[in-house]
Amino acid sequence: MAIHITQIGKHRFVCGLFWQSLSRPRELQREAADLGKKIASDLVVVRRDQSTAQAGFAQSSEGATRALYSLGAAVSKTLALEGAWYDGLQQPVHNWLGALKLADGQWAYFAVRDANFLPNGDFVGSKEEVLDRLHADYALGGWNVVIGDAELENQGFHNFNARDLDSLLPRRKDGSVRLHSWWRLRQINARRSPWALIGAGAAVAAMGGAALYWQAWQAKQEALRQEEAIAAQRRVLQQQAVQVKPWATLPAPAATLRACADGLGELTPGGWLLDEYVCEREQLRHAWSRQASTIAMLRAVVPTAEVDPGGDRATLVQARTPAKPHEAEALMGRQDVVDAVMSRLQGVGIPFKVLRKKPPPPVPGQVAPNEPWQEYQFALEAAGIEPQQIGALLSQPGVRVEKATYRGMRWIIEGVIYAK
Questions:
Q1: In the predicted model, is pLDDT for residue 386 greater than 90?
Q2: pTM, whole model, 2 decimals?
Q3: Burial call 256-292: b when 16+ CB within 10 Å, e when fewer
């Protein structure tokens, strides 16, 4: 990860460190130094927050020096001490995302899960790059708050705390930043020089043998770096498999179907007839057929409708903001939740189909996460019942609606059941 150096007052801070968790409380510096050698980093900062410890690594070959302070370490410490406002209280915050504008026009991004920076959760980029990453991570769910500049308040994040960078750095009475020595990068003990190894080899072998020894040493170091990268990826995937609960990123069925019903617009605009209305997480789609009307009559009611080349069909696609995600409630067993939902639907004469959801094919070179839950797809078709009523019938732990279609006076509801 490329580092970025920014000036704050009289001091320079660095972003873009590679973070790794530490597990030996009594010898954190030594553990950090050993790990740094394995990943070929020569500078490190060690942070402790909320009973956790991490090391952030950098390389002098990329421009890092011992005169730099870690911006991520400084900001995370402030949040560890102050907490954040969410769920109606100012309280400790362990899972947060941050997007903060820097004085040089770039944006710093931080992603902290269980009080630990994600390995790549500390970087700087343009506003567009940071927002792309922020939305992607936010979609995973499980975050207590999003911390960011006030201009991001309209992005739709729940529990958004408007804070700028200045408010997240401790200050002296004169307004200058109150620095702490442990924020500063420290030199990792230098490894034995490769030339010393070559010299030792030359003492017992010819120069040709020393060259072979040097090549072998390089190959070994490269193998160690690759092993560490694979291990880091495995740890991240395993952590996310346990921590990221997809049902916590989706609204409850009642909220989803209420929003879908509200989005159902013109049924017969200008005499055109609604063939189908589809409500999905990110968009709404209406489709009409012309009947005995004209394009002009349709345009008078729906100016932005797209008419097909034949002139007899038209569609309108609109982006939508999803309803607020529901809490990550405890899951029920598959048979328990299916029986509960199916029994309710049977009471009003609605058939209910459930199928085991196939997992996505594995990505070559990546470790498949071992998810501690099962996913089942469901579908139902109902006539004469309002979507809000269907939402109430589907209200069970782990049940989420992904798509609602209105066609021929009937609602077709599709979704997922997450179960133990």
A1: no
A2: 0.48
A3: bbbbbbebbebeebbebebeebbbebeebebbbebee
